[in-house]
Description:
Blueprint: E1 7-11, E2 18-20, E3 40-42, H1 60-68, E4 75-82, E5 87-93, H2 98-112, E6 126-127, E7 132-137, H3 144-149, H4 157-176, E8 182-183, E9 192-194, E10 200-202, E11 209-210, E12 217-219, H5 231-236, E13 238-240, H6 241-257, H7 264-268, H8 273-281, H9 302-318, H10 329-344
Parallel strand pairs: 2-3
Antiparallel strand pairs: 1-4, 4-5, 5-7, 6-7, 8-11, 9-10, 12-13
Helix pairs in contact: 4-6, 4-10, 6-9, 9-10
Amino acid sequence: MERLSYLKSINVSFNDLEGEIPSGGVFVNYSLQSFLGNKGLCGVHIVEVPACTNPGQQSKSKERKEISKMWKSSGSVYQGTLSGGSVVAIKVLDLQSEEVCKRFDTECEVMRNVRHKNLVPVITTCSSDYIRAFPLQYMSNGNLENWLYREDCQLNLLQRITVMLDVAMATEYLHHENDTPIVHCDLKPTNVLLDEYMVAHVGDFGISKILAVSKSIAHTETLGTLGYIAPEYGLEGIVSTSGDVYSYGIMLMEVFTKRRPTDEEICNENLDLMKWITQSFSGTMLEVVDAYLIPEEEQITSKSEICIASMVELALDCTLEIPESRITMKDVVKRLNKIKNSFLES
């Protein structure tokens, strides 16, 4: 990261990092405030940080290895500031994994050819012997999963409809508005990021597939996330746009019920999220949707109930077992727009 000449500030606090703090580039003239919560760090150019036992003796490869142990996935995301004052997110990949490097190449190939208001904008890419990174537009409201499960974050019914419409439009663009269809392969709440205006953006194309013009399906050995994977994807490695539709439908159920597809209570009853909702659909949907969907100060209206039922019905149409029976993302966008407009009518 010393080599990123346009990066003017960085803060890696509370990442539990260890090793020697670099002494060049963006790390010059920085104070302890940029490195709080990293007890294993050492260095010589920051007064408050202890000196390393053997400064300068570790090889770069060993330093990277030690840092990578602290990462929970294929890499880490940092917040930085460019010379013009713009805040960016910097996604840095773990170079120790050959699979991660392949994902970097895939993501570069996908992002090179797509532009849509509901996709996470990639500012540029950084690739060398020492780093694979994406400076991305910073999304100040984090990801959708935080808004579903953190107690200090709540989304009302209209906000959830709007967010899922944003995701649907992004996915429709990938499937239907490119010369070759692009399958995301890992649609889930953590890959949906929200900007300062609560507009949703789909990101993380590391395992995406670009389908050949003459083919509507492909095969892969790289799986997405348990619970969101379509049956044909998980069993046979078949990748198609219908697989994304299935994942979208699961996420739609999760957004309205605040239940993960791997929810322990549901799994203990030998059910999955679809079966659990289907059993409840014959009764009142208000018993299974998230209690915060409609704030206490607002009354539940018939319009709200119709809207919720329509959204759940849409989710079930997305998650039919046979891929050919599922609706397309074009159909999803049309139906969501109709549901949202009906809900907003006075």
